[in-house]
Write a structure and sequence with these properties.
- This protein is α+β, with helices and mostly antiparallel strands and 290 residues long.
- It is built from twelve helices and eight strands.
- The two termini are 23 Å apart.
Length: 290
């Protein structure tokens, strides 16, 4: 079956690990069934219409997305880590299946430094070649004769492909990736500078940056800003305090500091962003691009 590929992006989650399941609008989500993948993947989900407006927030994650547009048209793309929010309307589709890698977890599966994918939508074929073509054909064919949930069957097929990639002989990851992931855990918690993180891990700030950019896709300082931004989004959804209180609880010096960085990352003020969410102008925290 001939398949036309369109480099698009569908239903991408924008959250810190703890908030992924809570914020997704229409997902069937959870940890991967494969034990091999659980250290690398934070969520897998299948989504179907109606989803019209979604937002892509910077969160340090990378996603693999399969979208079925109609009976014989589909695509598979890799969504690199984001440094700025993107708001999109979702074009018509039948089903989207998504694998969200933990920050720093995607490197072994795609074979390129992750900064090469930052803020990009890359067809899986550019990274996997004919293996991506074979997987796409398989995913489109699922449905006829499948007695159980076709969405679940497709998710399982993607997991098998990723597991095979992970266990393949050509998988490579530099030793410095372990340092980058250790730094990521420290920076996610806040309250520590990049220089202090490098010192705690017994590496120079320059070497930490090099390892972090290759493994996570953004610099340590960018990631620290993104993690702090995500804390604001989480806290603002549950807190009843003032923005000054939310700023301090999230790791900002004061409210103006919060507003300035929030605008840079989200493209909106905190008040405008939360208003759009509460009024339904933006639905959920995934993303769509077509």
């Amino acid at each position: 079956m001939a398949v036309r590929r369109e480099p698009t992006m569908v239903n991408v989650v924008g959250s810190i690990e703890q908030a992924i399941a809570r914020r997704a609008p229409h997902p069937e989500a959870g940890a991967p069934a494969s034990r091999v993948l659980r250290n690398f993947v934070v969520a897998v989900r299948a989504s179907a219409p109606p989803i019209t407006n979604l937002d892509l927030l910077p969160d340090g994650t990378t996603s693999l997305v399969f979208r079925l547009l109609d009976a014989d048209r589909a695509d598979i793309v890799v969504l690199g880590p984001k440094t700025r929010a993107v708001y999109k309307r979702v074009p018509r589709f039948l089903l989207a299946v998504q694998v969200v890698f933990r920050p720093g977890g995607a490197y072994p599966f795609f074979g390129v430094p992750m900064d090469e994918l930052a803020d990009r939508i890359v067809p899986a074929r550019d990274l996997w070649g004919r293996r991506a073509d074979a997987l796409l054909e398989q995913l489109v064919a699922v449905g006829a004769g499948v007695t159980r949930d076709p969405a679940r069957a497709r998710l399982e097929a993607i997991e098998r492909a990723l597991e095979g990639r992970m266990l393949g002989p050509d998988v490579f990851e530099p030793a410095s990736a372990a340092v980058a992931r250790a730094a990521l855990r420290k920076l996610s918690l806040g309250g520590i500078t990049v220089e202090e993180t490098a010192s705690a891990l017994h590496v120079s700030p320059r070497n930490l940056r090099r390892a972090f950019v290759a493994t996570v896709g953004v610099s340590p300082k960018q990631y620290a800003r993104i993690a702090r931004f995500q804390r604001v989004v989480s806290n603002a959804q549950v807190a009843r305090g003032s923005w000054s209180e939310i700023a301090l609880a999230s790791g900002y010096c004061d409210q103006p500091h919060l507003v300035r960085e929030f605008r840079e990352l989200a493209g909106l003020s905190p008040v405008a962003f939360m208003k759009r969410r509460s009024t339904g102008e933006i639905s959920g925290s995934g993303g769509g691009r077509g």
